[in-house]
Amino acid sequence: MCGIVGYAGPRDATDVLVGGLKRLEYRGYDSAGVAVITPDGSLAVHKRAGKLGVLERDLQRSPMPQSATGIGHTRWATHGGPTDGNAHPHLGDDGRLALIHNGIIENFAPLKEELLAEGAEFTSETDTEVAALLLGREFGRTKDLLSAFRAVVGRLHGAFTLLAVHADEPGLVVGARRNSPLVVGLGEGEQFLGSDVAAFVQYTRRAMAIGQDQIVAIRPDGIELTTFDGEPVQGEEYEVAWDAAAAEKGGWSSFMAKEISEEPEALEQTLLGRVHDGLVVLDEIGGGFPDDVLRSVDRIVLLGAGTSAYSGLLGKYTIEKWAGVPVEVELAHEFRYRDPVLGPNTLVASISQSGETMDTLMAVKYARERGARTLSICNTQGSTIPRESDAVLYTRAGPEVAVASTKAFTAQAVALYLFGLHLGRVRGVLPDGESRAMVAELQALPEKLRQVLTQGDEVREMARQMSDTRSVLFLGRHVGYPVALEGALKLKELAYIHAEGFAAGELKHGPIALIEPGQRVFVIVPSPRDTSSLHPKVVSNIQEIRARGAYVLAIAEEGDVAVLPYADEVLRIPLAGTMFEPLLAVALLQQFAMELAAAKGLDVDQPRNLAKSVTVE
Ligand code: F6R
Q1: In a designed cystine with 573, which of 65, 95, 316, 584 is the match (CB 3.0 to 4.6 A)?
Q2: pLDDT tens, residue by residue, 32-50
Q3: Which tens digits make up the pLDDT trace of 209-244?
């Protein structure tokens, strides 16, 4: 939430900042602003409510002066509505210092009282302005931006990334982070700061993660990294695994369309190098989870939020089946507020695309404090959650820019499946033959997914016909249940339609009362080949809702003719093992939600009120 960019170097700072903000806009799009230090030693600031495009148009009409130092921000509002006045940057009293912020300053009220008593004037309703005014005043005393910044940051509580510049110190941008993301881009004669690497990957793929409670100062010729107390620290440098083109829309109508199309490749990448002789071997988690530790695990808790929690539900089914360990899935934001029972043999695995979701991060920290071992399943290199965990299993879906998660979901599920197979092998509970068969299914998934995605036109037509629909229900059973939940979430967040996902068996316990003539219901139909005979049960559920007037949209395996008499429309998925079909079915529901939103003329990539990477609680 909120995108942050900083730059010091020979390029035109405004160009770099606006370019970076474009690639970070998914983090918030209520307002945007930039501040640069001009050659005559003053500060130029421009900020506007609305999407980045509003600011860009203003800057085309009246360009900022050429500059080599600056900061830029794109906002997801917390304190104060999305107005020009509340947009960042915020300024010190004399207008020579600018500051931007991501997060929440929890003690802003007493600090504001203090500033008001000293005669300060506020021009916004934000918590951020407190930090800007404090910093401006501290600079007045010290005449040194870095030491003033250190003094002010030490007074703030809560979660924050802050960047600041002062007109008296051209060529310097200072940044601090606590429980909120910030990375450095290391260039030749130029340095960058960003909420994530997308902000600068166009210029450099050399990055450095900033640790908790650290302050960084960038100048064109280098960086200085310290703790909040000023102790020097050594940063961890890494090479970004993808290039700028991966975060561009290319010829696609939306990032979401592009990212759905990339799902097969995301799965291939996530499998890469993790299968040896037909079996899953995850050496990379061996540091935190050597085999003897994995053998002693007696319980697994999977933590995540939203889509990531739903991939966790898929993981529960597979890990329990293949590794024989009890698995609970819990929403990260509920977990740490209810005294969960955690023992030394509890493995807590968090699932997060961004690696920065505050709810998940806090839950991981809490689990560690309580003695649990933590594994991170994450898509973002160098992000906070993996760094706070004992081991990490990266999904390799590449950058996900659309706010609604798609390829990250399927890649997370595959990573969990890999973990389940690894665990089952290490614990000796899954015979190699069975393991190899599951691995073969996993390896066949990308190609099957490619086939599924060829039904785009059909899905679009289905969505167009439903553009006036006000409510859609989703039913699934067993591994189809998480798919129903995810299908409903996608539709809610993208098309603003009431949508609910249910376990099909739950229907008769209440939700069936919702069925009235014409009610649209997606049903994820299990394979008729499955031996647990769920297929006939789901077909019975379809008949029950049809009898009450529901309009049934079935997602069924190729060749499943049993659904035909009862379904109004059928989308097909290729034959795959029971555990794998959900990953094919979900892609159709992602496409459907996207197409319905598009048919309603909505912004598919940036749905209202949302932002990617939720870094506030
Ligand atoms: C929905 C969606 C969200 C995220 C959730 C967790 O499409 O994207 O529900 O899944 O905010 O985010 P991460 O995975 O970054 O922790």
Answers
A1: 584
A2: 999 999 999 999 999 999 9
A3: 999 999 999 999 999 999 999 999 999 899 998 888
Query: Given this model, what pLDDT does residue 379 score?
Result: 96
Mutate to test the pocket of ligand 1, among 331, 350, 353 (most ligand atoms within 8 A of CB): 353
The answer, yes or no, to whether any atom of ligand 1 lies below 6 A from the CB of 379, is no
HSE toward the beta carbon, residue 239, CA cutoff 13 A: 1
The answer, yes or no, to whether any atom of ligand 1 lies below 6 A from the CB of 350, is no
pLDDT digits (tens, 9 = 90+) for 493-523: 999 999 999 999 999 999 999 999 999 999 9
**Fold classified for 454-599:** Rossmann fold (3.40.50)
Q: What single string gives the DSSP state of each residue in 130-183? A: HHHHHHHHHHHHH--HHHHHHHHHTT--EEEEEEEEETTSTT-EEEEEESS--E
Q: Does residue 559 carry a pLDDT above 80? A: yes
Looking at the structure, give the CATH architecture of the domain made up of residues 3-245.
4-Layer Sandwich (3.60)
Going from the Cα of 352 to the center of ligand 1, the distance in angstroms, rounded, reads: 7
C-alpha 406: how far from its chain's center? 10
- Domain boundaries defined on the chain: 3-245, 255-430, 454-599
Instruction: For a ligand 1 pocket test, name from 259, 329, 357 the mutation site with the most ligand atoms within 8 angstroms of its C-beta.
Output: 357
User: Which ligand 1 atom is nearest residue 403's CA?
Assistant: 8
For the segment 96-145, what is each residue's pLDDT rounded down to a tens digit?
999 999 999 999 999 999 999 999 999 999 999 999 999 999 999 999 99
For residues 206 and 239, the answer to whether their CB atoms sit within 8 Å is: yes
Ligand 1 centroid, distance to 380 Cα (angstroms): 13
d(CA 253, CA 161): 33
404 lines ligand 1 (CB under 6 A): yes
Average pLDDT over residues 250-255: 92
Average the pLDDT over 68-83 and give the result. Answer: 93
Q: Which atom of ligand 1 is nearest to the CA of 406?
A: 7
Please state, rounded to an integer, the average pLDDT across all residues of the chain. 95
243-252 pLDDT, tens digit per residue, is 888 888 888 9
DSSP 448: H
- DSSP designation for 89: P
Q: Whose CA is nearest to atom 7 of ligand 1?
A: 404
CATH architecture, domain defined by 255-430: 3-Layer(aba) Sandwich (3.40)
Which residue is it, tokens 């794109």? 74
Mutate to test the pocket of ligand 1, among 362, 395, 405 (most ligand atoms within 8 A of CB): 405
Q: How far is CA 104 from the centre of its chain?
A: 19
Which residues belong to the active site?
A: 2, 612
306 lines ligand 1 (CB under 6 A): yes
Cβ-Cβ contacts under 8 Å for 158 (sequence gap 6 or more): 103, 104, 105, 106, 107, 178, 179
Mean pLDDT computed over 171-180 = 95
| Identical topology for domains 255-430 and 454-599 | yes
Query: Residue 248: its pLDDT value, please?
Result: 85
